């Protein structure tokens, strides 16, 4: 099913539907069984429903809801809200200022995987993995951090750091990560203390500082 220019209202008629919204602010609803949904240009609202869906907002400020099932979701460019829903989802805000909600299940949440993005991520219940992308020089500051609201190691949450390069002008003093939740005295990578070598050659330490106490405590990775 293909939308054209204009604000379309589209509902999938069969399982495994393929839908594109085209230009305009579209409203798209999946069949509930393993659909592929592309918003394309415009500020789109996409409700995939149940099933293992592939959902991509593309251009514009989109609102995406995966519903039940193991969904693969990306916001595209723009300031997006991406809700995985129940199931083991993979969600990525991509460019822009994004709100990411994994929902129930063991989710893969991609934070800061586009240059100049700014993400606020909530894993929800389950053992979630937060995968951090561009956390080096040139892609952020303390005034525009990426935020994880509910990191909880006792639930099995993990933090994976990805450095595109450990040489040249890239370094570990870029975009900070702010936690609202618990973080032990050591950062953990797959259940083991994180050594400097996991960041590539040239790194010997990971520094972080705690700001505040109690329920308002924050930990900033620098």
From TrEMBL:
<feature type="compositionally biased region" description="Low complexity">
    <location>
        <begin position="79"/>
        <end position="88"/>
    </location>
</feature>
<dbReference type="GO" id="GO:0005576">
    <property type="term" value="C:extracellular region"/>
</dbReference>
<feature type="compositionally biased region" description="Gly residues">
    <location>
        <begin position="66"/>
        <end position="78"/>
    </location>
</feature>
<keyword id="KW-0964">Secreted</keyword>
<feature type="region of interest" description="Disordered">
    <location>
        <begin position="62"/>
        <end position="88"/>
    </location>
</feature>
<protein>
    <recommendedName>
        <fullName>Calcium-binding protein</fullName>
    </recommendedName>
</protein>
<dbReference type="InterPro" id="IPR050557">
    <property type="entry name" value="RTX_toxin/Mannuronan_C5-epim"/>
</dbReference>
<dbReference type="GO" id="GO:0005509">
    <property type="term" value="F:calcium ion binding"/>
</dbReference>
<dbReference type="InterPro" id="IPR011049">
    <property type="entry name" value="Serralysin-like_metalloprot_C"/>
</dbReference>
<dbReference type="InterPro" id="IPR001343">
    <property type="entry name" value="Hemolysn_Ca-bd"/>
</dbReference>
<dbReference type="Pfam" id="PF00353">
    <property type="entry name" value="HemolysinCabind"/>
</dbReference>
């Amino acid at each position: 099913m293909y939308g054209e220019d204009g604000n379309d209202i589209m509902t999938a008629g069969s399982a495994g539907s393929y839908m594109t919204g085209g230009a305009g602010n579209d409203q798209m609803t999946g069949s509930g069984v393993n659909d592929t949904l592309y918003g394309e240009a415009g500020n789109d609202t996409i409700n995939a429903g149940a099933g293992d869906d592939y959902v991509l907002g593309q251009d514009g400020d989109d609102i995406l809801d995966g519903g039940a099932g193991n969904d693969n979701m990306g916001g595209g460019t723009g300031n997006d809200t991406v809700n995985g829903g129940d199931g083991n989802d993979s969600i990525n805000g991509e460019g822009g200022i994004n709100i990411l909600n994994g929902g129930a299940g063991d989710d893969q949440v991609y934070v800061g995987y586009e240059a100049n993005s700014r993400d606020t991520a909530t894993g929800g219940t389950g053992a979630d993995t937060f995968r951090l992308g561009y956390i080096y020089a040139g892609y952020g500051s303390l005034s525009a951090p990426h935020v994880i609201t509910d990191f909880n190691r006792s639930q099995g949450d993990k933090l994976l750091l990805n450095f595109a390069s450990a040489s040249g002008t890239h370094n570990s003093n870029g975009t900070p990560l702010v936690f609202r939740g618990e973080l032990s005295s050591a950062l953990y990578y797959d259940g083991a203390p994180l050594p400097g070598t996991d960041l590539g050659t040239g790194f010997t330490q990971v520094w972080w500082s705690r700001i505040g106490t109690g329920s308002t405590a924050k930990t900033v990775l620098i």
